[in-house]
Amino acid sequence: MLPPIADRLGFGVGVRDHLGAGGTQTPKSAPVGIPAKFYWVDGDIICRPGEVPVLTVVCFPHRPSGPGSAAQALALSQWRHLPVPAPVVRTAPPRRTQGLVGLPHWFWVTNWRTLTDRARAGGSWVEIVARPQSVIIDPGDGQPTVRCSGPGNAYNPAQPAESQRPECSYTFPRSSFGEPDGVFRTRVTVVWGGTWTGSGGTGGELPLLNRSTSFPIRVVEAQSLYR
Question: Residue 162, SS3?
């Protein structure tokens, strides 16, 4: 299985083999918009974003060496198999109802929590901590994505709407009329970061992970409700 290529935000968008002869080329720096620390590990292969064009990666054998290398390899292997869940997302207005053009559509993630894992192999041990870092909303209407720094806050239907402010929302500028099935296909992604500590005083950061879920949202013009 080949690692994914990256878009300008460093998200996986497919697969491509850039090993080439020998497979030893490494990028001097990450492209603008992609964190330099972002990489993928697939077995004994590690990949970083290529320099040009942005939508490429460069792969080379990854064989950690030196003090702590066994713990580092164990941490990367454990990270790849960590059961990070897809986000459970609630919205206001609720799904299966209609949102309104020009009014904020609330989003909040209900399973936002820190995960830990521990592994041991031979004389090495590691402990991994995974934390959700941000939420990215792709509204599905062709507009840019929206990034939220936290899980969002829940809408309370028992309180007046004017007294509440969303921490994570998107305002649709047009209705979904004319879209397939009359809905926008909205995608919500949670970006996870991780750290590890291990035997011999080792530790460090781990590559970002993304987990997503998609669902339809129907959006109508306010006046259409009164026709």
Answer: helix
- Measured CA to CA, the distance from residue 44 to residue 21 in angstroms comes to 16
Residue closest to 30 by CA, chosen among 40, 22, 21: 40
pTM of the entire predicted model: 0.70
Amino acid letter, 91 = T
Query: Maximum Cα–Cα distance for the chain, whole Å?
Result: 72
Distance between CA atoms of residues 154 and 51, nearest Å: 41
Q: How far apart are CA 207 and CA 146, in angstroms?
A: 22
Q: Give me the pLDDT at residue 70, please.
A: 86
Q: Which of 36, 35, 33, 57 is nearest to 46 (CA)?
A: 57
* Segments forming the whole domain that contains residue 83: 66-226
Is residue 131 within 8 Å of 180, Cβ to Cβ?
no
pLDDT tens column, 171-227: 999 999 999 999 999 999 999 999 999 998 999 999 999 999 999 999 999 764 444
Q: Are strands 124-138 and 115-121 parallel, antiparallel or unpaired?
A: antiparallel
Give CA–CA dist 75/78, Å, rounded: 5
Domain count, the chain: 2
If asked whether residues 88 and 200 sit together in one domain, one would say: yes
Among residues 19, 45, 63, which one ends one of the domains?
Answer: 63
